[in-house]
Write a structure and sequence with these properties.
The chain is an alpha/beta fold. Helix content is about 25%, strand content about 20%. The protein has a single domain, classed as Phosphatidylinositol (PI) phosphodiesterase (TIM Barrel, Alpha-Beta Barrel), CATH 3.20.20.
């Protein structure tokens, strides 16, 4: 047992046996002790650390939403990549966060009013290079071989990013955020599902395998595999398709419940994430919009309401938190047992999670 300061009180951290090895009940919340979840102060047993999701790629090290940023994130060990998508005037989905290109390029205008050829003529990376020259990251990058200039400066289409993910050589998930409001409204989701279908990512990857029979009180029955049987699988954050045991390679996120409804209606096997900048009263009890299985609260919400994660878990939802860059925030999210951390610093966050150690109890007071 180990001591932890819990609102002025010392609480002992429980360790439980899981298929012959000790694992921590990862997750705690800062509500009064009397309001702890029914299954203990740590919410759930999680033998795995949260998935590390690279926010707009490794966007602290390279220009956001560029091919270089995503290549770097994969090299730094990110479990998943995150991107924002907008629809151009000629119907292409491109990875750009802002409604206008002014901040991240040398051009001006709304993405929705520009064609792909217009965006391809812009420089989407030099602004980052100017910032890097003023800090240590820039000095370190200039000392190492760089990617071709176009990988750091060209607009990135979602199609090209999907190619990168599917050819990564290992499992790399993709979290795609739809940006609203936009003049193209539902056409964004229509084009997105169409593109996912082209890559074979809009539906189940394989049929559900039959479950092995087990003997119950009333005779043979089917059931889930033992928890230990899942420990060797790659860590994923999205969860399995409803019709397959294979976890989804992609998920769609949005602050717009209507956008997620469109995705769910057109491609129900694709997991959806409801992003939240503020905690609205109707969602405080852990409910999410219909059809949504993953909550995406901001780090601000989690800091102010850490018990909200436990409520989401009790409601059967997964939790993906954004944007988690600071060590204290990483540690808090890890203790709460969230499934994914969306960060600009995948290398640093991965290293911190590795140091925490999820499969071995701490030494000392045990």
């Amino acid at each position: 047992m180990a001591d932890i300061l819990y609102f002025g009180h010392s609480r002992r951290i429980p360790w439980v046996a899981d298929e012959g090895r000790a694992t921590r009940r990862a997750g705690w919340h800062d509500e009064p002790v009397s309001q702890a979840p029914a299954d203990g102060p740590y919410g759930r047993t999680r033998p795995d650390p949260p998935a590390v999701v690279a926010h707009r790629g490794a966007s602290e090290s390279a220009p956001e939403h560029t091919l270089a940023a995503y290549r770097t994130a994969i090299e730094e060990g990110a479990d998943a990549l995150e991107c924002d998508v907008r629809l151009t005037a000629d119907g292409h989905l491109v990875c750009v966060h802002d409604r206008r290109v002014n901040r991240t390029s040398d051009g001006r205008g709304a993405v929705s009013a520009l064609e792909l050829a217009d965006l391809a003529a812009l420089d989407f990376g030099s602004w980052k290079a100017r910032e890097e020259r003023r800090d240590e990251v820039g000095r370190r990058q200039r000392e190492t071989p760089e990617e071709p200039d176009w990988e750091r400066t060209s607009v990135l289409t979602l199609e090209r990013l999907l190619e990168l993910v599917t050819d990564a050589g290992r499992r790399v998930e993709l979290a795609i955020e739809t940006k609203h409001p936009t003049r193209w409204a539902g056409q964004v989701e229509e084009k997105l599902v169409e593109l996912l279908r082209r890559f074979g990512l809009a539906g189940p990857a394989a049929p559900r395998a039959p479950r092995a029979p087990r003997t119950g009180r009333n005779g043979p029955r089917t059931g889930r595999a033992k928890p230990g049987a899942e420990s060797s699988a790659p860590h994923t954050a999205a969860g399995p398709h409803p019709e397959t045991d294979e976890p989804s390679l992609v998920r769609v996120m949005s602050f717009s419940a209507r956008s997620l409804h469109r995705i769910h209606a057109a491609a129900p096997a694709v997991p959806t994430v409801f992003l939240m900048q503020f905690l609205l009263p109707r969602f405080r009890d852990g409910r999410l919009p219909r059809g949504v299985g993953i909550a995406g609260p901001s780090m601000r919400i989690v800091r102010a309401n850490p018990g909200y994660v436990a409520r989401l878990h009790r409601a059967g939802h997964r939790v993906h938190v954004w944007t988690v860059d600071e060590p204290d925030d990483v540690a808090l999210c890890a203790r709460l047992g969230v499934e994914a951390l969306i960060t600009n610093r995948p290398r640093q966050v991965r290293a911190q999670l590795d140091r925490i150690g999820y499969d071995t109890p701490p030494t000392g007071d045990a």
